[in-house]
Each structure stands twice: as structure tokens, then as C-alpha cells.
Amino acid sequence: MEKKDFEAWLDNISIAFLSLTDLQKNETLDHLISLSGAVQLRHLSNNLEILLKRDFLKLLPLELSFYLLKWLDPQTLLTCCLVSKQWNKVISACTEVWQTACKNLGWQIDDSVQDPLHWKKVYLKAILRMKQLKDHEAFETSSLIGHSARVYALYYKDGLLCTGSDDLSAKLWDVSTGQCIYGIQTHTCAAVKFDEQKLVTGSFDNTVACWEWSSGAKTQHFRGHSGAVFSVDYNDELDILVSGSADFTVKVWALSTGTCLNTLTGHTEWVTKVVLQKCKVKSLMHSPGDYILLSADKYEIKIWPIGREINCKCLRTLSVSEDRSISLQPRLHFDGKYIVCSSALGLYQWDFASYDILRVIKPPDFSNVSLLGFGEIFALLFDNRYLYIMDLRTEKLISRWPLPEYRKSKRGSSFLAGEMSWLNGLNGQNDTGLVFATSMPDHSIHLVLWKEHG
User: Cα(52)–Cα(70) distance, rounded to whole angstroms?
Assistant: First the structure.
């Protein structure tokens, strides 16, 4: 057929085809396909793929692709990565999407990392760790054995755990290896704190002592309390040591000389916790950089200004019930911005700038749950049976880990949290090392540690 005749025939056929119903059009196409040979079918296949399978993600500008991808959840995006190499490349390079997904999981974000493929890998690592937490597979346990009497005092710092015992000794352990680095003869220890050179102990004999690790020698003895010393803290820069006692007082000492600088009164119960910390917020009563002392008993938390001056007066007293019907747990969190303490009613968080209660967190069956650690994203809690991780953004418990029958103590110093930085957000490096330690009835120390990602 001549080209001119063919074009006229094609116009007539087209006009007639357009006048048909959809069903008639389909029947016409089916008939034409049945009459087609291999060349026509290959031509049809190639053109249909272009018409019907257009890759919009490939055709769109990258900025528009990223905008569309933001509306998809991470699991859908991971599925989309399997479509083609091009899709995988585009989706993996969508930094903002993966950073947001990581933040939603409670992951810390380092904005200085510019590698576009980095954050998808971080998300995959994060989702694995969060699944392990949900499935109760993120931790493992071990024990430290070496004391011959009850272990009453624990303190953790930089991978090292100090234990003080009724066997008149204190030991320093490398948590990663389980090896005892130092063991020195002391008095009965109710509280311990250490650094590279020295160990400070509060004792049931009503005194505080300072010891040298390398020689085991007692370098200072602080006498003056008339009751057991349940908590100690110190600051080398200020040359100050503070101690809380069963005699209802807090004493401030010169660390280097052992001289008592002041006795702070006002508590009407055992002082079970003292914390010496630098203030990070400004208020009418203190400025950033000021040193603050917190002391806590069964019902109250008292706030004191501490500096090089000898005398100080209580700035404020915090409590959760005016009639003392609700008691506080022995543990206390203070980071210079917020004060957090638990009670039978829940977790109380105070703003340190205003002393106002910011919130009360009440998880299910909170009456027996105590505070171990409190961060920007997570809190670490425990009761008689489990160790818990709470997402503070939702106030939901996201993980738990079974605990053995540990030694109970109303004063509560015989258990503690380990590494704390992950409470401000996991980052793939800080989920290592010690999570929790507690003393056992057989005088061993039970450890809960992060398990490697695998």
C-alpha cells in the first residue's frame, strides 16, 4: 500500500476506533495482537514499558525526589531500595529522611557527618539495637567474685567499678575483664567514690576516710558525725568533701586537711544522698558555674550554695507531699539543669532554675519502681524483678531485663547504673559497657552489660 493510501486508511481506522466503546476497543486490540508477528509484538512490548512503567523517581529532580521520600516511613523506604540500583542510590542519599528516622528511635545525630550514605547505615544499626531492646536481647550478665562479706557500697566511673564491703576492704574492678585492679584494707563501707589516685569512703563507724590506691595508705580521716555516713561527694578544685549521715546532718570538709568547715542542719531523717554539682542555669538564687550541694532524706531534698565560703544557708527545700505521706527513694539525679527523684507516686522532675515541678511520670505499677538514671531521651529504672528502659518522650517502657534476687537495702546504695551517656540518646558507640550493678546475697556483684550488636 502506498504511503498516501496508508495514511488515509489509518485516519479512517482511527476515527472508527475512537467511536467504539471500551469493550469494543479491547476486542479490537486483542484481535490485532492475535494477528501480529514477532516483530510487532516486540515493538508493542518496548513501547508499553515506556508508556506504562515510567520511573518518576529517576525522572524527577533530586530535590523533588527527596521531598516525596519524606512522606514515606523508613520501612517502606527500605523496601523501595530493592526496586533498582537507581532507587537505592537516591533513597540512600536522602540524609534528612534517615536522620529523622534515627532521631525518632532515640538516636543522637552528628550534623557534621556529610557522607550522604552514612545515615541509612546508622538507621539500620539503630533499628537492630532497638529491636534487641524490645526483644530483651540487648544485654548480657556476668559476676564479680572476691568479697567475703556483704557488699554495701558501689561506685562506677569510666569502665571501673569500686565495691566496699563489710569484710573491711574496698576493691576496684575492670568491668570489661572482670579483673580486680586494686584491693585495699578499709573500714566498713557504706559509700565510696574514687578517682585515679584516691578512694573516699563513708563508713558505718561514723567517719569518712581518704585512701591512696597505689599504697593502700589512709591519707585523711574525717571525724565528727555521730551516725553512719551513707553518702559522700567531693571536688578537688574546691578542696571540699561533703558527707550525709544518719545523724540527720550534712558536713562540709576541707578535703586536703580533714577540717570540718560547716555542719548543715535541717534534715529530720537520715541523709541518704549528697550530690555536689556545678549549676548550668540562671535564677535569682544561683548563676551558671556556681557549685550547688543537694542533700536528700526520706521526705525532702535540700539545696545549698557551696563555694569557698564556710557558711551557707539552705536555698530551698523540695518535697512531694506537705504532710510527709509520700516518701522519696534514696536515689537522686541532678545534672545542673534538672532534679529528678522517684517516689511511690512516680518520677518527679524539677526545673532547677525555678524549682517548679515540670512533670510527674507515672508508669504502670510504679509503687515499687526506683530511679537509676535519667537523661534527655531515656530513663533507667528497676524494681524487685526487672531493669526497665523508659522512652521519656512517650513515657512508655520500651524494654525490660530480668534481675536475680539481689540484696535489698532501704537506703539503696547497693545498686547503681553504669554508663549514662546513652540516656541522652544512643549513637552506636555509647551502647557498650556496664548498664547496671547490684550486690548479691552471696557477696558477689551481679553485672548487666550491653551485648555487642552482632
Answer: 25
Residue 293 to residue 57: CA distance in whole angstroms: 59
Distance of CA 393 to the CA centre of its chain: 12
Domain span(s) for CATH 1.20.1280 in the chain: 57-134
- Which grid cell is 16? 472508527
Can you give the pLDDT of all 454 residues of the chain as single tens digits? 788 888 888 888 899 989 999 999 999 989 988 998 898 888 888 877 666 666 777 777 878 888 888 888 888 888 988 888 888 888 888 888 888 899 999 998 887 787 778 888 889 999 999 999 999 999 999 999 999 999 999 999 999 999 999 999 999 999 999 999 999 999 999 999 999 999 999 999 999 999 999 999 999 999 999 999 999 999 999 999 999 999 999 999 999 999 999 999 999 999 999 999 999 999 878 889 999 999 999 999 999 998 655 567 899 999 988 888 888 888 899 999 999 998 888 899 999 999 999 999 987 666 678 899 999 999 999 988 899 999 999 999 999 999 988 766 655 558 899 999 999 999 888 999 999 999 998 899 999 999 986 5
CATH assignment of 185-325, given 3.90.420.10, 3.30.365.10, 3.30.70.330, 2.130.10.10?
Answer: 2.130.10.10
Report the greatest alpha carbon distance in the chain: 119
For residue 297, which of 325, 257, 322, 331 has the smallest C-alpha distance?
A: 331
In the chain, where does the domain assigned CATH 2.130.10.10 lie?
185-325
pTM given for the model: 0.83
